[in-house]
Amino acid sequence: MLFKLCWVKLVGKIKVLLLVWILIFGLLWSDEENTLAGSEPARVLLISSYHPGFPTFFQQVNGIKSVFTEKGIALDVEFMDKKRFSDDTIETLFLDLLSYKLNRTKPYNVIMAADDDALLFLLKHKANLFPTQSAVFFGVNNIAKARELNGRQGITGVIEAVSMKETVEMMLDLLPKTKTVLVLVDKTPSSIGDLNTFRALSNTYPQVVFTELSLGDHSYTEFADALQKIEGETAVLLLSAYVDKDGNRMQFNDSLQLILNNLHQPLFRKRSTNAIFSYR
Fold this sequence. Notes:
280 residues, disordered C terminus, 9 helices, alpha/beta, 5-stranded parallel sheet, 4-stranded parallel sheet, disordered N terminus
C-alpha cells in the first residue's frame, strides 16, 4: 500500500472569522443601547452547532476570544451537539434548556451562529428567542440558504470557503486516468451544502462522471459493502460520514477507519483541519 500525504492551501475558519469580527463590531457600535466603553460590557452568545470535541470548535472559540477579550466583550457558548446527536429530541431539549437560561440571564447584544445547524436553529427560533438582537453567522456550507438572507434586516454573516474546485483539480492532476469522482456524504446540513457545491462542478469536467454514495440511503454496514464494490478508475472524496440512514453515528476518526478498511480506491479528504490524502 502506498500512502501519500498532501496539504493544499484552504481558506481556514480563522481567516473567515476575521470578517465576522468586522461584522460584529459594526453591529455593536451601531447599537445605540450598547456602548463598548460603557460600564457594562457587551454580551455575545455563540450558538455552536457541535461540541468541544469537534475539530474546529476551539479554532472558532479561540479566534473569537483573541479579539473579544481585549475589547472587553463577554462571550457565552451554547452547544447543539449535532454531530453526535441529530434527532429531533436533541434540538427540542436544546431549545428548552436555552429558553430556560435566557429567561434567567441578562439579554445579549449580538447572537452568533457557528455552522449550518446553528444557523437553521437561529432562523427557526430567532423571533421568539432573540426578537431584537442582531445575529451573525459563519462557517455555513449551504450557500443557497445564506444568499436567501441577503438584505434581511438584523442578520448577516459569511459562508465557509470550500475549495471544492481546487480539490477536484488536484485529484485529477494526481490521478489523470480518473473517469469517476465519487463523494461520500451523509444527510447533515453541512454535508448537503458541500454536496451541492460538488454537484455544481459537474459541467466543468464533462470528461468525468460525478456521482455520490450517501449514508442517508445506507446503514454503515451497507455503506461498507458499497465501498468494497467500488472499482475502476474512480477517485473518492470524503465530505462527511457522521450518521447513517438509521441514525447511527460515528465520530470522524471512526468513520474514516471504516472507510479505509473497506475502500480499495484512492481517497481524498478536503478540510482545513485534516490533511488531504490519498492511498492505493
